Please model this.
Amino acid sequence: NETYAVTDALNVALGLRYTDDAKTLNSTFKTTDGSCNQALAAYAGLASVVGAAKGQAITNAMCLPWETEAFDARSGVQTSSEKRWSGAASASYRWTPNLMTYVSYSRGYKAGGANPPGIGFSVPTDGGISLVTPVPPSYGPTFKPEFVNAYEMGSKNTLFDGALTLRGDAFFYDYKDYQISKIVDRTSVNENF
Model:
């Protein structure tokens, strides 16, 4: 990034960035305890105390996919590699010692990536205990790199021998593949908007 004094009043700034981004996501599913197996083993006793329907609801909750030890050791690897240019250019002009105006343009970049693998599972639909059956993890979803073209113009004005400073600017940001994060089933997932 460098600023050049073209004249005593005019400055031009140029900046350039090259990003070489490589990512590897290693994911392994591991529960803290055998909650589903314990719940299934205790179901008969639990149902006799709280009733079949409530016992089934408790057991089903303890056998949700992210709490079932049947998924332990499910793992996956995702990789990505990106090479991108980004940069900025601006010009400022000092009309008087107290008044300066400027314009600028910049292109920003944020790398894409991958979310942890989803847990594949199937659940019986017979209304009984929801025993889940693990299947290989699904990879993704991935999300694209984010780009923004930013435009700005403004002025800086000093008045009353420096007692008052007025600044104003206008800007516009044009995003492509804006990245957002949201929580889905207790997991943070990134995606493009």
Observations:
- Residues 122-127 have pLDDT under 50 and may be disordered.
- The chain is about 15% helix and 60% strand.
- The helical segments are 35-50, 52-62.
